[in-house]
């Protein structure tokens, strides 16, 4: 099958070549290799899908209680009703009286006896042969039938070009050394097996993706990814970047001035991390480092020190954050630290008026702005840096992969790359670090600054709301402040959740002696800033908010947080929100208030969050729940980075793929190119971010 012959609907799914179709593997299977009599089907079909056949003896369209088609078939001994609540004229024609059909589905008791509802139906002759392999069920998009995909895949597997595309070129010595006790099927036989497994195949192993045929495919895919990451790592070391050594000759260096001006000393963990980053900045190839640390561990000051060193050498530094509220927090902090030292700072965000934006862009392009802070507005087309030496990306997983690549292209006309420091309060699980982040050097601030106290987390039913409000009143009476977080701004009939606006009105009425403020995403930037400033100054004692306060809010006197409908939030969100308290000397509490009934997943999530504040434990649970795409920001690129691998289930394969990648890169450069082309094609660039 050639690309031109592929149906348009299949092309839209990217199934435009024999190779693409061969790698479009089934998501599950149906067993159509066994045919039961109707009598046997009536007994066995109550717990699983079964297949039977017969002649249509009745076809009726009924209108009670709604329009539906009921077809009755018989096999000379028993009869079976088939019920269709949605049907087309073509189906009526297929199942006219006298037609012989084969049906598959589960049997259940209906108003008129045993029946199958919406079974799969095929018109066949009474002696039509049964398939000899399990029937694959493929991932499909709207308007694409399983029959069309199966037909296209079957044609693709017969295509002569596929023999070359799936040729066996990994050295057998390497494969045997990695798994000497296992027999690896060849790639072509593995893929053929997955599309057409025999009737006696281990169906569970196929569904779990632990069958040797799946293992071969998973290994190949992981190997391509590991090779790509290791090559990106090597290529980065060949690129040119400005080298920023600590300048001991400058007695009045900005870096020294900043250290002296800070009202605190760096923790041991911060000092260690700063040494690692300082070492990276001294190299003549671009830094690509991820700085991990829990909320409040002091990542921002490390970013400031890195910026100071770069500015000392006559280059610009940029700090980019995903939300305006976080970016603004960075901007205010940098102004506080750098303006007394004479550094020119520019602010750039989407909400600026055209005139302000143009002025900021001119300051950046001319090089007058030494430090630039902003949102994704920093990577828009009309932003050009004079001499960008360092890009700091905060909460890096909130940006798409393309956006993280783009910041490196903002360095003017000089042929050099800027150093890149990414920061995240969401720790990267080990399996993610081994796969997607293999080209990243990772630093971890594993110590909270002195005075930061652990946060006690309590889980409370929504029925105890009045009790919580009463406790809140006595809390505020001590002169402390609090947050009350809600998931929605306006009423949603579908979810029936308390909203920020409603809660604000209720709490204002319930706590008349205290000032209650409201902040949410639809407020204008200046309105938001005014409310936050009033909260910080203790003019507002209770702040009702949506998740706009998830990152970037620092009010030491706010030591209590109530999260309403906590069952609606994910692991990472609650972990981030909870980190807004515990920043002062008072004992801090986070109350997770939930509505019943609670799903098992929500129950487990709340239990975990109550028991641990360890970001790594939470990140692992989050990975198992959401998959890697969301944690990485890869979903925003539109590309599934690993199609066949489950990072937790298949973790043992990652280490094998890493070893194999090292061997191939060292000894088999020709094989490396062929392998990357087969598995990644144009997607390899995303792995460089």
Automatic annotation (TrEMBL):
Its EC number is 5.6.2.4. The keyword Hydrolase applies. It catalyses: ATP + H2O = ADP + phosphate + H(+); Couples ATP hydrolysis with the unwinding of duplex DNA by translocating in the 3'-5' direction. GO terms for biological process: DNA recombination; DNA repair. Gene3D superfamilies: P-loop containing nucleotide triphosphate hydrolases. GO terms for molecular function: 3'-5' DNA helicase activity; ATP binding; DNA binding; hydrolase activity. Pfam families: DEAD, Helicase_C, RecG_dom3_C, RecG_wedge. Keywords: ATP-binding, DNA damage, DNA recombination, DNA repair, DNA-binding, Helicase, Hydrolase, Isomerase, Nucleotide-binding. SMART domains: DEXDc, HELICc. Belongs to the helicase family. RecG subfamily. This is ATP-dependent DNA helicase RecG. It comes from Polynucleobacter tropicus.
